[in-house]
Specification:
This protein has about 425 residues and is α+β, with helices and mostly antiparallel strands. The chain contains eleven helices and 14 strands. The structure holds zinc ion (ZN) (2 copies).
């Protein structure tokens, strides 16, 4: 009876509440709260006692149970020796939080609890003396318990990945912080005017501090794609700041007529339920002849990461082993790859999950370092989607041209690092 054994250790000396008792069995059964688990285990122990089992339990843990045969002496129930009855404080503290967020516009929330070191010590001592392997931490349970209380009360959803509001309640200080999650808006933009950088660019003279030559704006360029698009959105959402996440970027002097994906992040928005169709029209009207946006849609942090990975030019460092010796002069042969369009059939290593097509990607820059006759190091900046290992090995002739073909020896990448994504 491992459960009764563990329970008797937990309840042997001093009062432990249902939350703290149940939490030691948190990894057993699902669909129960820890409070439920604690109640069940406590009753199971009581059954055993009433049937005549001899288990050493501090009677203070059995005050509410009506036994038929087992005799206990009545005493006042003190505070839980693990949590100081902290769970009983949750309703009142939650009400304080609700009072502060009830006027904000949001659908999802995440609640976290911060605890005093003493309570965490209490719990660790318990774990040490009991040795249960089914437990979770008090911080986890308290955060979840408070989160459930608040969301039920205000009818919002708990969201771990993309909460619009985060609350951290510090139980030691009896105070809390409210964080307002960014609003993310996806879209595509076009740029019709040269000389506009994508994002803010600090003045080269004052580095953004403000000087005569930048007219005390701190900016090298008066306008950026980011600001042109973000200004009306900031106004609409009453956010405090914006961040622009583009899927790569064009040069300042280059136009972009094909549309480039972006996610605009608005920090600390007051309003979230904005009319994107209307906003799109407004942005395009204000910025006529400069930039335009299309396909605006609400988005999230994950999309930002996806965008960055999908379209970014990347720079790699590759350590390469050769199967026949070369001379130091030979590595110059690799220079011809600079600026070259590489034809790559789908690499053998991925053909089982991708259609077999030939793609064309550019080597933007490449340089090579001679280590010895059979080992070289290559730094290569490639257009998004360039297969680097194949560029070097030739993938049995499926990639043309290649480092291997240019050197006339077999070449294998033994280590590959991404050193820059832009
Ligand atoms: Zn407790
Ligand atoms: Zn300046």
């Amino acid at each position: 009876m491992i459960i009764i054994d563990l329970a008797s250790k937990i309840l042997a000396d001093g009062y432990v509440c249902d939350h703290c008792l149940g939490r030691q069995f948190a990894k057993l059964l699902s669909g129960y709260s820890n409070k439920d688990r604690g109640n069940i285990v406590r009753n199971a122990v009581a059954f055993a006692l009433d049937s005549g089992d001899t288990i050493k339990i501090d009677p203070v843990n059995l005050q509410d149970i009506k036994f038929r045969t087992y005799k206990i002496k009545k005493m006042q129930v003190p505070v839980c020796k693990v949590c100081d009855n902290i769970f009983l404080q949750v309703p009142e503290k939650s009400e304080r939080v609700i009072e502060n967020i009830k006027d904000s516009e949001f659908d999802t929330i995440l609640v976290g609890a911060r605890l005093s070191g003493r309570l965490i010590d209490n719990e660790e001592q318990l774990w040490e003396s009991v040795g249960t392997e089914f437990c979770e931490s008090i911080k986890m349970e308290l955060s979840r318990f408070m989160g459930q209380f608040i969301t039920t009360k205000i009818k919002k959803d708990l969201d771990r990945a993309n909460p619009q509001i985060t609350v951290v309640y510090d139980f030691e200080e009896n105070d809390f912080e409210i964080g307002i999650g960014s609003l993310f808006i996806y879209g595509k933009y076009k740029k019709f005017m040269r000389g506009i950088p994508q994002t803010k660019w600090p003045c080269s003279k004052c580095r953004g501090l403000g000087c005569d030559s930048c007219d005390w704006t701190g900016k090298q360029y008066k306008e950026t794609v980011e600001e042109l698009i973000a200004a009306p959105v900031l106004e609409e959402t009453e956010g405090i700041n914006s961040k622009f996440h583009g899927a790569g970027r064009e040069d300042i002097d280059a136009l972009n007529l094909c549309g480039r994906e972006f996610v605009l992040e608005i920090q600390e928005p007051v309003k979230r339920s904005i009319d994107l169709v209307k906003l799109e029209k407004e942005i395009n009207k204000i910025n006529k002849d400069k930039v335009s946006v299309s396909e605006l849609a609400f988005s999230d942090k994950k999309t930002v990461v996806d965008l960055k990975e999908k379209k970014a030019d990347k720079t790699y460092f590759a350590v390469v082993e050769l199967d026949a010796p070369i001379t130091e002069a030979d590595i110059k042969k690799i220079d011809v790859l600079k600026g070259k369009i590489i034809k790559q059939e789908t690499p053998e290593r991925v053909t089982h999950r991708r259609a077999d097509i030939t793609r064309e990607r550019k080597v933007i820059d490449i340089s090579c370092e001679f280590i010895d006759s059979k080992n070289i190091r290559i730094k290569v900046k490639g257009e998004a989607g360039l297969y680097i290992k194949e560029l070097i090995s030739s993938d049995n002739g499926r990639t043309k041209p290649s480092v291997s073909a240019l050197l006339g020896v077999g070449a294998t990448v033994t280590a590959l690092d991404v050193v820059d994504i832009e």
